[in-house]
Structure formats: C-alpha cells, structure tokens
Amino acid sequence: MNKHNELQLYLASGSPRRHELLTRLGYRFEVLKLDVPEQREAGEKPQDYVCRLARDKAMAGVAAAPTALPVLGADTIVVLGDRVLEKPSDLLDAKDMLESLSGKVHQVMTAVALATPERCDVRLVTTNVAFRKLDEAEIEAYWRTGEPCDKAGAYAIQGIAGKFVSRLEGSYSAVVGLPLLETDLLIKQHLEQTR
C-alpha cells in the first residue's frame, strides 16, 4: 500500500452525513459501526452529555478497531433552554419538538472526539439556529417525508427543513453532524504529534 492510500483514522459512526463531511476533509478512513448507549444522566448538562457521548463513541471505537489508529467519534444534540431534543419516537413526539422550536432560537451542540489508547481530545461546537413560525399542516407534511424520523430535534437542516431556518450563527456543518474546521484541526494536530 503506498503512502497516499494508507488509512489514517477510523470513524465511529454509521451516519452517512458524518461520512460525507469527513470525506470532504480528504482523510483516508474506515467506518466502525458500534452500538453505544445514548442516555442522558440525571442532572447532566447538555454540553457535558454531548461531550460524553462523543468520547464514549470514540473510546468504544478504540476498543473495537483492528489497528491502533485514532478513532473519531461525534454526537449532535438539539437544545432548547435546558431541554435536550433527541430523535423523535413518533409523530406526536416530532410535532411537540417542532412546535416548541417554531419561531424560536435553539442551540445545536456537536461534540467531536479523537481517541487513541493513550488519550482522548474533545471539541464542542455550539451553533444558534432560528426557526421561522411553523404551522401544524407544515409539520405534519414534513413528518410524512420521513426525514425527521432519525434526526435529533426532529429535523435535518441539510434537507427539507432548511426552509424552516431563518438565521444561523455558527457552524453549518456542525448542525449537519460534524464541524469541519474543528474536526480538521483536531486530526491535523494529532497527525503532527505522531509524525
């Protein structure tokens, strides 16, 4: 295998969005599909929760990886006040989430972790997202597209729900699932330290 084809890291995520974003950065990686529990602990702050999940995924990847290359883990949550909006369980759950986001500003927190057997570095990126007012018929029509079913906060900014966003302050790619700038810096820093 020549130098340009050598694997550089693993991605501990089955998310096609994260795969696509990491591909854009030009690193050579393989995907590790892992089943890591995503359960918020009592009293856990949203930012601590998302950082822990990213760390847990990266460390689970380190344990499962066939070689000692670094493992990238990430997690994204939607936060309104102190409420963490997970993936909706059904239409009523999605409607409740989207109605609560309607006409308001919320935060999307994405944590990215790069782990090796020796260490784990975590970066947190918080983006403010403003939604325009949504009506019930719109929310129901959106649910029928199938897009919100497996998305935190019941929406995908890179999909149909992009039309709900009136303003965004921060990282668009972090809202999609992987902050390009911070992820690139994290990987570059690691690769430079291990040369």
* CATH third-tier fold name: Maf protein
By helix and strand content, what is the structural category? alpha/beta
Assembly state: single chain
Count of discrete alpha- or pi-helical segments spanning 4 or more residues = 6
Strand content: 15-25%
Query: Low-confidence spans: pLDDT under 50, at least 5 residues?
Result: none
Mean pLDDT: 94
Function: Nucleoside triphosphate pyrophosphatase that hydrolyzes dTTP and UTP. May have a dual role in cell division arrest and in preventing the incorporation of modified nucleotides into cellular nucleic acids.
EC number: 3.6.1.9
Keywords: Cytoplasm, Hydrolase, Nucleotide metabolism
Main location: cytoplasm
Task: Tell me what you see in this structure.
There is one protein chain. With 195 residues, the chain is an alpha/beta fold. The chain has a single domain, classed as Maf protein. It is built from 6 helices and 7 strands, in the order βαβαββαββαβαα. Strands 1, 2, 3, 4, 5, 6 and 7 form a 7-stranded mixed sheet that branches. The mean pLDDT is 94.
